[in-house]
Write a structure and sequence with these properties.
Blueprint lengths: L1 H10 L1 H11 L8 H5 L13 H7 L2 H4 L4 H7 L2 E9 L4 E8 L9 E9 L5 E6 L13 H25 L3 H6 L17 H8 L8
Antiparallel strand pairs: 1-2, 2-3, 3-4
């Protein structure tokens, strides 16, 4: 499955690049997406608060976004992910415009995985930081640690598998009424859903 995800990630880079240009006002948007952004139009170029709207429209992520996060996410320009081979895992990169909150233009979150039939999260680095070791924790603390790890991994895979590939549908709200907001048989028809969703390009023409 990881190989398949990486395949689509590389295959659709041109679409991601085009989406970036539209969201950040480098090119004009036409087609059906133009109708969707009218409600968000404040006269500025591009699509204001695109990624903030996308993230808040996903149930998993919406519960983790507070007011202070919303102010920061208004500056978010793009989100990318990539596979890592050594160590195994994947990386999320959040690209920000100049803002009053931090100097770095890119925030990175890395998920280190243990190989096996079912990938297991070994550790995660990047904001928010997760303790690297769980040794010497009492049972209650260990349970909380495991739950936090699971939640953090769930957020990471949601952004990787649902948000980045289907951002346009999350922005318009279409994804909320579709299978992209639920688990179910998503893995079994992953290839089919990817083929369908990348017709989003038609919305830009």
């Amino acid at each position: 499955m990881a190989v398949l995800k990486a395949k689509y990630q590389n295959l659709y880079q041109p679409l991601y690049a085009k989406r970036y240009e539209i969201v950040n006002g480098l090119v004009e948007v036409h087609g059906t997406l133009n109708n969707a952004i009218k409600d968000h139009d404040d006269g500025t170029k591009g699509i204001p608060n695109f990624w903030l709207t996308v993230l808040k429209n996903n149930e998993v992520l919406a519960h983790k976004i507070f007011k202070r996060d919303e102010e920061l996410l208004q500056y978010l320009q793009d989100i990318k992910w990539s596979m890592m081979e050594s160590p195994k895992g994947f990386k999320l990169e959040f690209f920000f415009n100049k803002n009053p909150y931090f100097k770095n233009s890119i925030l990175t979150k890395i998920y280190h995985m243990i190989d096996g039939e079912e990938p297991i999260l070994e550790k995660a680095t990047g904001p928010p930081e997760i303790p690297a070791r769980r040794d010497n924790l009492d049972e209650e603390s260990a349970d909380k640690f495991e739950k936090y790890m699971e939640q953090d991994y769930d957020i990471g895979t949601t952004i990787r598998d649902k948000i980045i590939p289907h951002a346009i549908k999350w922005f318009t709200g279409e994804a909320q009424a579709s299978s992209y907001d639920h688990d179910g048989d998503e893995d079994s028809d992953d290839e089919e859903s990817n083929d369908e969703d990348y017709s989003d390009e038609e919305r830009w023409n």
